Structures are given as structure tokens and as C-alpha cells.
Amino acid sequence: QRVGTARDISLLPLTENEYKPYKVWVDKNTQGNWTVYERQTNYTNLDFTKIVAGQNYGTGLCFIEGVGYFVADSEAQILYQYRLLENNQWTLYKTYEPNGALSTQNYGYTITHNDEFLVVSAPHDNPSSTNKSYVFIYKIVNDKNLPILVLEQVEDIQDFRAGTSMALSGDGNILYFNLINYGIVVPYQRDND
Residue 58 above 90 pLDDT? Predict the structure, then answer.
């Protein structure tokens, strides 16, 4: 592709080859000479293979350095943990499910984390005093030999569809999640004792 000035590069239309490196010829650079810029891609497809099939596979996901890649399937009610092997291939390492005694729905709808905690929501579609929404708080064990999550707390929220959106403060002291029925955000303060 060819443009008059480097400033015009941003106006180029996206092409089918947008995710491949390409060159742009510029008639006049800042010194008034022609030049060639080569664009490099920021991301490339790793051909991550979906090991399990579910209708809602990928409803929640995150990556934690040293621990792995987490993918939730809110229909199957499973959180999958993948690890990168030395041969640069992803493999299923562990699965997490809500406590069997809880009547959950949509486990894995939303995931948020910081360096210490990973939080998984299970907002109920028809909340009531018996159909509760849940928020699962896991401690991240970032051990080279055993990188896992340990369930530390389960918050049950009755009468509200809670946790369709969540955020965790960087220091992990405040967990925010929404109560969609009322259009509000609720902060939960961490007890550091």
C-alpha cells in the first residue's frame, strides 16, 4: 500500500491480511524523502484447541502468569485450568466445579482476579430466597510444582441476580459486583485479620 505521508497510514482500510505483517510506502517522511514502514502484528493465533465442547464455553476467562489459562463454561458449570507445556502446547490441567450441595446456575459467568485471588460468579437467572446467586473466592497458589486454586469463601446472595459483572481492586481489599435487579454495584471489604 502507498500513502503520501506517514500520518495517512492510520487512514488505510483494514484488509483481509490485517493480521499479517505488511509494508507501506510513504512518499514523504519527516525529512521529505520516500521511505518504507513495515507493520508487525501484535498478536498471532496460537491454535489453542478447545478440549471440551459446551454451548457456553468461554463465558468467563483469564490468564494468570505461572498458574495458567482459565476458561469457564457456565452451562456445564465447570472452570477449566490449562497449563502451557514445555513443547508450547496447552493442556487441560485441572477442573473446578461449584460445591455439589449448592444449587448453582451460570457458574463461571464472570471471572476477575488479581495476584492473590480469583473470583468466579454464578448469577441465578431467577433469583429468590431459594434460588441464590453465588460468588466463589479462590486463593491462587502460584507454586511451580502445584499451581492451583483453593476455594476460600462462597458468598450467597439471595433475591438478586449478582455477579454478571465484577472487579477486584489491585490490592485485593475490595471486591465489587453488581446486583443487576437494582442496577447497583456492591463493594465487599476484605477482612485482613
Answer: no
